Amino acid sequence: MRAIVQDRYGTAEVLRLDEVDPPEPGPGEVRVRVRAAALDAGVWYLTTGRPPVAQLAFGLRRPKNRVAGQELAGTVDAVGAGVRRFAVGDEVFGTGRGAFAEVAVARENRLAHRPPQVAPEVAAALGVSGTTALQAVRDIGEVGAGQRVLVTGAGGGVGTFVVALSVARGARVTAVAGPDKADLVARLGAERHVDYTREPITAAGTHDVVVDVAGNRPLRELRRVLDPRGTLVLLGAGVTTSGFLGGAERQVRAALWSPFLRQRMRGFIGIAQADDLATLAGMCVDGRLTPAVEAVRPLAEAPDAVRELGAGHARGKTVLVP
């Protein structure tokens, strides 16, 4: 099968299209013939092997999984032992292993059935970015009607979902994003766009909830735009941060400081769950959520797409099709 593979860490140039053997599903897994796969920040971390702490999971000297990609939508073509929820021929979406290929494998509990009203290119965008944003907005930030919410990195993959889901819950959203993404965040329902290249984020005043997706601002700066009893949700680690922990170092400090402050600071890493996938798909069906899929590209263009992701130029979600 055709797949995007890498044998070492580095820039997007280490990625190449090649022929590899298709994977076999293990116990509790299904094999999916991929119809669409989306990019998320984890792809950049796996490609570069940065921050260094990530190599503890990805492989110390080289990637343990040669084929990158998590978010996918496709058709089940084989099932492993013990699988109960899916059968060959089912249309599914969620997260898997080696999604940048014609065939990938996924754990049963990381998938949901894809409604026919939700296109594969849209469903693929929900697996990591959508579920992470949903859990951050609903469970960690506890965003509700009338609240003021500020989102950094609002024009990217997770950020666009945070904006859209906060608006869907009745919040008033300030979106921090570059000048080329003003139209995008407005389309998602943001009341105000802060162009970080021209004005500080403090220009928007204070907010009940701040969701930091960009991952590159000091905690003290984020706290200045947070209500004295507000909640700061730290999602992003940033793609250009340095050090062994990268941007995750801020999450460690936030956890240490938070018990001594009136402001809540919560670091968070989303994990795809079948129930959350189904919730997002339902919102797409009834019109409450329209994922910002801004580019659909052939699988062979994955290196270019990853390069744009690492440079911070990606708008919304980019989807690859085999």
From TrEMBL:
SUPFAM superfamilies reported in the protein's UniProt record: GroES-like, NAD(P)-binding Rossmann-fold domains
Residue ranges of every copy of the Enoyl reductase (ER) domain listed in the record: 10-320
Family matches, as InterPro entries: ADH-like_N, Chloroplast_QOR, ER, GroES-like_sf, NAD(P)-bd_dom_sf
UniProt cross-references to CDD domains, sorted A to Z: MDR1 (cd08267)
PANTHER family: ZINC-TYPE ALCOHOL DEHYDROGENASE-LIKE PROTEIN C16A3.02C
Name of this protein: NAD(P)-dependent alcohol dehydrogenase
